[in-house]
Queue: 4 jobs
Job 1
Amino acid sequence: MLKLYGAAFSRASIVKWYLEELNVPYEFVMLDMKAGEHKQPDYLQINPMGKVPAIVDGDFKLWESGAILIYLAEKYGKMPDSLEYRSIINQWVYFGSSTLGNGLFIEANREKEMPRLLTSLNEILSGKPFLLGEEFTVADVAVGSILAFGIQMLKLDYSDYPAVSDYVKRLTERSVYKNTIAQPTV
């Protein structure tokens, strides 16, 4: 069975959300970061960077939430055959993990980056329920989780961006979301 290693209030909840969306059985291994469990030799064999999340799937080990999301989408048949369409999904996963996360969560960047990023996202999301159209994909998990974290953790207000607000509302109303990210393991 796949093992997901995480900690309280970590990006492991993003991976949990996607595993639940895929209906994939997994074991969640909670690491006590305050006690330094992420720096113990056994865990460093899984992720030498000593960060979470990480997964062990049989003999395969992988870390970084975006890489894990893409791996799961590939493994469970949720990536399209088209190289171009797969690349667009990858683009959004990387955007969520890096550009959007840094734009919203690094306070020194927020004042400049948040309006620029959310204005563009608002235009992209206008008139469609998900990033790529009518179908929920791993891209929505990657981007939607960061947007939702912005509301939950930073109390960000997206009301100036109605399509973004509607998108976040649509994602956070998903039952799987409510049982994973909205209820973080503490």
Note: The mean pLDDT is 95.
Job 2
Amino acid sequence: MAIPYRSTRSTPDTGSISFAEALLRGLAPDGGLYVPENPPRTSFVHISRGDTLPDMACSVFAAWIGDEISASDQERIVRDALDFPVPLVPLASKGGGPWSNTFVLELFHGPTLSFKDFGARTMARWMGYFLERRSERATILVATSGDTGSAVADGFAGQDRIRVVLLYPKDKVSRVQEQQLIAERPGVQALCVAGDFDDCQRMAKEAFVHPAFAGAGLSSANSINIGRLLPQMMYYVLAASRLPAENPWFCVPSGNLGNLTGGVLAHLSGLPVAGFLAAHNANDFFPRFLSGEDAGFAPTIRTLSNAMDVGAPSNFERLQALLDRPTMQRLIRAERVLDEDTVASMRRVYEATGYVADPHTAVGLEAVRRQRALGALQGPVVVLATAHPAKFPETVHAALGFEPDAPDRLAAIGAQGTAVEEVIPSVEALRPYLVG
């Protein structure tokens, strides 16, 4: 039996919808984000160290999606989408230090070398399944601050009933990220927005409620969409199954708070954790909120960890719908790590352990180091490594004096044609791409 989903802005009279409806709509008509009416309680005791990620996903998704997708179709979808390794790498340094009992969960071994591949690839196949059954078509409109767009473009490209329009901020993603974003793919159009990520996100949100686009079949594929978050729950489950019985801490490099929300959903569903550490860059609304400030959203600040450059995180609304403030403050800690500390973290970790971290993962590692120094994190800590360091060659070179080896799939991107146009930061600029 499927569980019901509701908007974060719904009232008791609003009612609920199915997973398929929430997935295909993306954003609720009232502008809210979809959350489970009550997260299903799942027992994770049957999940063993020997299970593969697809094995675990088939088991967990049964509680969240139920019979909306048959068991055989779900297995086919999940095994096709999540067909790449997820190594859990122990950090080891001479004399122990802050990296003792610290692990890096490498989420960047998918096609676009980013953790976004988990959600994008699974979503694309779920959407294709439901659209085929309904004989409908959809347009995926997605705003990206770095890695989401390329993961969505790759995951959805060539789907018969789906086209993709992705928005990214001009001059605010890395060179390698932009190459991935604008690579020519069937059914995908990249738009370079003369603004920042918040402009891209605002344009996307406005388009969903704009009457001119009512017949465009719009849906989202960034963490606005609940379908992105369910697959992201799974690597928390995987990491916990690979560790000793002691409940781990999870350190999550955070921007739009979707990755963190995926972990929170897994925990609310029954996954035992010690807590979460949200590691932010200079865009520090959430750390200020957790510290007790009457914090408000702020303009985006550009940083080295650009995929986390989000001044107004969408998923904060979801977290508020799932957790009251005291519970959130008990479950989640937060750190703010500036650029100079990010570079120092990359250097410090490499010198102590030989591990090469991208700038986003380095923010997480620095947050762990600080919390360990305070005696605040006891037991195992899993740091989510969200992107391959080869996506940030200039930053790695500045920190370590060399560029990381690039996987073959990254080198091949440059050989593709491109499909990109520049637009002003206005929802009206989207009309030619969404209508007709």
Note: Residues 82 and 384 are 17 Å apart (CA to CA).
Job 3
Amino acid sequence: MNSLTDGAGDSMIFGAKLISSERITPETSKVEVRKLVFRTDSLYFDSQVGSCIRVLAPGEYGSAHHTRLYSIADTEQSDTGAQFEICVRRCFDIDEASGEEFAGVASNYLCDLKPGDEIKFSGPVGYPFTIPKNSNADLLMIGMGTGVAPFRGLARMIYEKHGDWKGKVRLFHGARTGLESLYMNDINNDIGNYFDQPTFKAFQVLSPRPAFDAPIALDKVLERNSAEVWEMVNGPDSQVYMAGVKQMHDMIDNTMSRIAGSAEAWTAKRDELIAAGRWMEVLY
């Protein structure tokens, strides 16, 4: 299965310089997500959308490094190195016993960087999001939160690099609120660049009660479009991409089981897609 795994290919340590850091959630949102663009001069780093890098943030309590995986959202590779983009949400953890809030080590380190600062990282980890050669193939993208980041680069590759795409391209993305929709909010609407493509359609779903941390109803919007979703996964050369938090895995499995008519029918279809290399996922 083309999913996120740690492998031997990420043992080499690279350096990269921060080119730009841009907040892509509005200042009015409590959630801060930043788009960070880095440049590495190493010719050995294979930068591809959907793969991950392992950032080596400064360690704590005697550890040399604190590591964290981030998916590559967009990239440009050349004969002088690579420029790549990652999407980082500034995180805070709550101690269940004391209720004390602690800043996430890697995310705050990255969000506080200034242009010109350098990081160390290893990778790539996992598999890139590849595009089938057949431009009639249907492409189904399912993401949650910062999981939408690689789909921005994927859409750019589909329409800007591969030209006229005839197959259906559908993006289902969940966020807590409209302000946290990253590339689909009023300030940053990069994905809106592709709305005029006749084969592209995006579905955005929000939490019904964000103030109470109600679950994002991504399953509901998939079920409302169940006929098209099922037709797409059964199409010849169709490809399914999934990116986001690990918790969404069971939700998507349960939803697709209902769409397929049974858990057995969905398991058989998913296994078929995996065996053919047509199911790709990055879950953190």
Note: The helical segments are 105-111, 149-161, 218-224, 226-233, 248-260, 263-275.
Job 4
Amino acid sequence: MVQILPISALVPTRHRPAAFARTLQSLAQQSVQPIEMIVVDGSDDDDQTQILCQNQIPGLITQIQYYRATEIGAATQRNQAIAHATQDVIWLMDDDILLEPDCLKRLWDALQSDLQIGGVSAMITNQRYLPPGPISRALFQFLHGQPETSYAGKCIGPALNLLPEDNPNLPEVVPVEWLNTTCTLYRREALPQPLFSSHFTGYSLMEDVTLSLMVGKQWKLANARTARIFHDSQPGDHKNHSGVLATMSLINRHYVMTQILGRRSPSDYIKLIVLQLFEVAALLQSLKGWRSLPAVIVGKAEAVAQIMASKSLGNGT
């Protein structure tokens, strides 16, 4: 007998009905399910996702509410979705994840294990923290300002966010400093209003870091290591232009560093510059990286210009 939990799942989607169907099928196999799912669809003249949401999926008890997006973008579509949510626990999830058995139950149990936990994320089995090599470890120590046995789950220096570690020697619920939006439960009372700032548009890089850092100022954050998913990440127009992503990445990282973490000293900016140089140097390790190098450099230069222009206007973002 499937147990229904008082959870509102929020799913932004666009042009990915096949991947979303696999996500729903994996949810239908869970031992517990959310009472409702709010789907905000940004597809252009395509009713496949709407038909999917309206059709009966064997084993899926969750009630799906389908809405057309009034504005396109991961962050803004989640903002639209939460306006329709009725429950006190909010499940932020992507439309291209595959839930392993008991994933949601373990997320729920982790959230209930401590009333001070405001948010808890699942372990992404194909996107995990790996122990850094000598160069990366030196970089992390420089950015963080001190050595650590592990940097897993931390957000260090100029808002460099590192994934949690999938280590069987760790407890099932592991404290972390930030959470993704791929598969995460939040207490609604812990969430800001609006959910995401209007600063985040389109692909909305680092909106998850921003949200979780804001929650983490007053609540504990954790990773439920045994609540596991596979992120069946899909291609999209928003991921295809390396220059555009380079611009957005730097602008949004600067925003998180200065506006959320309050790190605005000269040393913080030096660390941000070093991180950008490291990212450019990392491209030189592959042919694909070399091909994208000119666009990335132009993209980062554009970001610097936008940041400087913003500072000259006095808003500091």
Note: Residues 287-312 form the longest helix (26 residues).
